[in-house]
Amino acid sequence: MQPRDGMLVAALRHRGEDVLAERPDPWTGCPLLHPWANRLSTERFEVRGREVDASGARRDENGVLLHGLPSARRGWVVEHAFRDRVRARMRWGDDAFPFPHEVVVEHRLTPDGLETVTEVTGDAPVAFGWHPFLRLPGLPRERWKVTLGSRRRIVLDERLLPVGRSEPWAPPPFELGDGSFDESLTEVQRPFVLEGAGRRIEVEFLDGAPYAQFFAPRAEPVACFEPMAAPVDALVTGDGLSWAPWCMRFEIRVTSSARPRSRRS
């Protein structure tokens, strides 16, 4: 874990191998995406009468704003750091997102993996998320088996932005093969699963993450089940957007067993 880099989870090892991918940019391991996750349709807009300037964010291959502001990775103060948990706090002070608030993140090691709790308090809309870049060491990507924990997907346009409707989408478990995925999901009801070669990775959204993104690009050996507090572009459209206080809790579990174990409360 790297508390002074936005509470990034740099590695999570199982049987001596890392199940989080190391990538050549700031979006490696499992980063926090704040103050929004995924994409925004415009760089300047108003939320409750206050102007947001998102022009400092990175952009995807279509020029669409992506994954929050760089300032969210700075200013963290560690409150405690033990062998099995780390807790840090960040007070937001960036005029580009003019909503005073605090973010507290605690990572807790569990018997099978890692639980992350994120609390946002103050005067702010909540559209943050996390982006675990998962991998199955020693197994070709095309043989990775995915089980989705959601029942619907939000229909996206060619820039991967919502068009304003959703549709049922609950495929049976499938191998990635040569497919490429970047799906916006809702109606999350059970854990997301990635498995193969005797290893099972579950990502369970326990609280405060009613939306998800399933990202598995053909060109890269990663599969991502991203917990999100709001749907894609919610800061701009207002659709599904909530306000602090907010608490998100999710767990990444890694086992050698093929039997699922739910801890949803």
What report would you give on this structure?
The chain is an all-beta fold and 265 residues long. The strands form 7 sheets. It has a 9-stranded antiparallel beta sheet with strand order 9-10-11-12-25-21-20-15-18, with no helix packed on it. A 5-stranded antiparallel beta sheet has the order 17-16-19-22-23, with no helix packed on it. The mean pLDDT is 94. Helix content is 2%, strand content 45%. It starts with 12 loop residues before the first strand and ends in a 10-residue tail after the last strand. The protein contains 1 helix and 25 strands.
Q: What is the string of SSEs from the N terminus onward? A: EEEEEEEEEEEEEEEEEEEEEEEHEE
Number of strand elements:
25
Number of helices: 1
Taking all Cα atoms into account, the compactness measure Rg is: 17 Å
Beginning-to-end CA distance, first to last residue: 26 Å
Secondary structure class reads mainly beta
- What is the 3D form? globular
Helix percent band: under 10%
Question: Biggest sheet, strands in spatial order?
Answer: 9-10-11-12-25-21-20-15-18
Mean pLDDT: 94
What can be said about the biggest beta sheet?
9 strands, antiparallel
- Would you identify the regions where 5 or more consecutive residues have pLDDT less than 50? none
β-strand amount: over 45%
